[in-house]
Design goal:
With 479 residues, this protein is α/β, with parallel strands linked by helices. The protein folds into two domains: 174 residues, Alpha-Beta Complex (Aspartate Aminotransferase, domain 1), CATH 3.90.1150; 252 residues, Type I PLP-dependent aspartate aminotransferase-like (Major domain) (Aspartate Aminotransferase, domain 2, 3-Layer(aba) Sandwich), CATH 3.40.640. The chain is built from 17 helices and 14 strands. It has a five-stranded mixed beta sheet, sandwiched between helices. α6 links the parallel β3 and β4. The radius of gyration is 23 Å and the shape is globular. The chain starts with 8 loop residues before the first helix and ends with a strand. The N terminus is likely disordered.
Length: 479
């Protein structure tokens, strides 16, 4: 077809000047699809009752859009799948282990690698080799499994995150930062002998996926050096944290995510990893350490609980997929799209006046259940209720992050009562489209504006450990 020579180029130029914003698209194209289906409200009601109003207990085949977690739910690339065909399934000394070891050293900077079946295996080993009864572990807000393993080893967790992190409306670029005065006070009160390490999470899950600044991490490192206390990192979403540093912290806009990640991790002495998050795989994890003697203890421990020190519960193909996933995860285009999709959903909800944790986090949008149900007592489980209502409305599965997840005090047996009562809409990596985010947002709006509010839930079954996974509930009678 011949070019149209009648085009008014002056009008095109003017239009171009007026429309300066350019859309962006995900840095990948879809190569394989998995069918999903929308169920009826009656079917969802039945599924919810069978699951005891706990979204963890709903069968995945009854879920339309699954935002329960980003753990192990990401889509692997063709390069990762190709790597699966190169799995060396030798019981000892798999070449894929050495490839993973070199990749972790390259991008995270740690000297020793101890593979585990997933992140909590690494948390368990770290706690067992460092912690004893009577110890305290300061950290920038608890995470469920991390705190459990610390307490299981006999320690007490002490929260040292900046106080504003407990306020979902407070705007700060790095709400995962440590309150340095509080950390110094804990270090002085308990002393080196009772503090095995300082536990740093980046990003901070329970605060809404909030990042830690490089400057704050550097100050934590200097303070711990003066007291002779190691710093251990939950590196599960450290790549997302590096992206936020690039976008928000002065002096880092010209650095790559990969460069920032390495600089950040070098301020720590080791880290635990759930490979099911940043590294883009469905299973696996690792513990990395710089101390030779501590690493030797970990290698000895891993053969008891996980597997040989060169596979630790993973197959060779899993280790190869993780090594390749790490390489992909640190690419700027990938991280821009990953966080961008979360921001798209969060900004849409904010435009509609729906209460969420601000700023928007890296892996999820967190709904503020207290503001959804301002008259509901925390003992009636507002966040658990909201997660159930969202599933009932549309088949979107989310996760409670409030009083249920917080659990009980190991000494008194009383419920922890966190200030944050949240529902997490967790976005798997490279899985859903913008249309799925639109459907999710419209469902949240529907639940937020419903005229008849639920009264809450009561817990009818409570397991001994990590109750949020398996607890069961029933609705309170309506007035």
């Amino acid at each position: 077809m011949a070019p149209n020579n009648d085009v008014d180029h002056d009008k095109l130029t003017t239009a171009g000047q007026q429309h300066k914003r350019r859309s962006w698209a995900e840095p990948y194209k879809i190569k394989m699809v998995e069918p999903i289906r929308m169920t009826t409200r009656e079917q969802r009601q039945r599924a919810l009752e069978e699951a005891g109003y706990n979204t963890f207990l709903i069968r995945s085949e009854d879920v339309y859009i699954d935002l329960l977690t980003d753990s192990g739910t990401s889509a692997m690339s063709d390069w990762q799948w190709a790597g699966m065909m190169l799995g060396d399934e030798a019981y000892a000394g798999s070449k894929n282990y050495y490839n993973l070891e070199a990749t972790v050293a390259k991008h995270y900077g740690y000297k020793h690698l101890i593979p585990t079946h997933q992140g909590r295996g690494a948390e368990h080993i770290l706690s067992q080799i460092t912690t004893k009864g009577g110890d305290v572990v300061p950290g920038n807000m608890y995470f469920t499994t991390t705190r459990y393993h610390q307490e299981h080893a006999g320690a007490k967790f002490i929260d040292i995150i900046m106080p504003e992190a407990h306020d979902p409306t407070f705007i700060h670029p790095f709400k995962g930062n440590v309150d340095l005065d509080k950390l110094e006070s804990v270090l002085k009160e308990y002393g080196t002998a009772r503090i095995p390490y300082v536990s740093m999470a980046a990003t901070v899950n329970m605060a809404g996926g909030q990042p830690v600044s490089m400057e704050n991490m550097r100050q934590v490192r200097e303070l711990c050096n003066r007291h002779g206390v190691p710093v251990m990192l939950d590196a599960t979403r450290a790549v997302e944290n590096a992206y936020f540093i690039q976008q928000r912290e002065p002096g880092y806009s010209d650095k790559s995510v990969s460069e920032i990640l390495l600089e950040f991790c070098r301020l720590t002495d080791g880290g635990t990893m759930s490979g099911k998050k940043d590294p883009l795989v469905n299973i696996g994890g690792w513990l990395s350490l710089n101390d030779d003697a501590l690493a030797e203890k970990a290698r000895n421990m891993v053969v008891v609980y996980e597997g040989l020190h060169t596979y630790g519960g993973m197959s060779g193909r899993d280790m190869e997929a993780m090594a390749r996933g790490i390489e992909e995860s640190v690419q700027d285009d990938h991280m821009r799209a990953r966080v961008g999709q979360v921001e798209y959903l969060g900004e849409l909800l904010m435009e509609w006046g729906i209460p969420i944790v601000q700023p928007i986090g890296g892996h999820a949008v967190y709904l503020d259940a207290r503001r959804f149900y301002p008259d509901m007592p925390q003992e009636c489980f507002p966040a658990q209720t909201l997660a159930a209502e969202l599933y009932l409305d549309s088949g979107v599965r989310s996760m409670e992050r409030g009083i249920v997840s917080a659990g009980r005090d190991v000494v008194t047996g009383e419920n922890h009562q966190p200030k944050l009562e949240l529902v997490r809409l967790t976005i798997p990596r490279r899985v859903y489209t913008q249309a799925h985010m639109d459907v999710t947002a419209e469902s949240v709006l529907s639940v937020f504006t419903q005229s008849q509010k639920p009264k809450g839930l009561e817990m009818v079954y409570e397991p001994e450990y990590l109750r949020f996974f398996q607890a069961r509930f029933r609705p309170l009678e309506t007035a």
